[in-house]
Amino acid sequence: MKKTDINKKQKREALLNTAFELFTTQGINKTTINNIVDAAGVAKGTFYLYFKDKYDIRNKLIAHKASRIFSVADAALSQTGLTELEDRIIFLADNIIGQFTEDKSLLGFISKNLSWGIFKNELISSSENSDVDFYNIYKILEHSPRAFKNPEILLFMIVELVSSTCYSSILYSEPTDIEAFKPYLFDAIRELIRSQEI
């Protein structure tokens, strides 16, 4: 990688990291592009080389952070030797829940802002700036020996189920703490998978 490419990557990373810090501490509505570039120590024009506006950086940041979460979970899964589809998906969900439990600000940011549109756009993205590889997660369903009515919809339902139900359990222990809640969630995921099998 050339020095100029390294420099560009560092500036983009600085903008993403700074935006995440500002978005999670003062909120997206109260954060301006000027706040982001000032705190990142880059020129405003540099911001527009990578992002259209603050909502574009928010979307890319969500995809960037979600990608890292999925990548960590996928790497851990590859070390397990699990072969059954349901066990693999439960392992991924458990690993992701663990990451969110350790970083509650990340949970708050992603759960408030992640939409299926962002997830799907990054799933099929071929952008050279994309560092997102959600396809490894998607292919678990797509390449399963079991057939499903619609793997994309099944994945959507699992992602939504995990993100929407774990938020309150992790942050507020409602209706119970996350460890007590997980067996119910994992049973629901297994039933969901079975219900969508052809």
Q: Which secondary structure elements does this structure contain, and how are they paired or packed?
A:
Elements: H1 3-26, H2 33-40, H3 44-50, H4 54-78, H5 85-102, H6 104-113, H7 116-123, H8 135-142, H9 151-172, H10 178-195
Helix pairs in contact: 1-2, 1-4, 4-5, 4-6, 5-9, 5-10, 6-9, 9-10
Task: Quickly describe the structure.
This protein has 198 residues and is mostly helical. The protein has helices at residues 3-26, 33-40, 44-50, 54-78, 85-102, 104-113, 116-123, 135-142, 151-172, 178-195.
Relevant terms:
mainly alpha; 0% strand; globular
Main sheet specs: none
Instruction: Assign the structural class, choosing from mainly alpha, mainly beta, alpha/beta, alpha+beta, or little secondary structure.
Output: mainly alpha
Q: What is the number of beta strands?
A: 0
Please give the radius of gyration in angstroms. Answer: 18 Å
Share in β-strands: under 5%
Low-confidence stretches: 126-130
User: pLDDT average, as an integer?
Assistant: 86
> How many structural units, i.e. domains?
2
Shape: globular
Protein model, in words:
The structure is a single chain. This protein folds into two domains: 1-51, Arc Repressor Mutant, subunit A (Orthogonal Bundle); 56-195. Residues 126-130 have low confidence and may be disordered. The chain has 198 residues and is an all-alpha fold. Helix 1 (3-26) packs across helix 2 and helix 9 (151-172) runs antiparallel to helix 10. The chain is globular, with a radius of gyration of 18 Å. Helix content is 75%, strand content 0%.
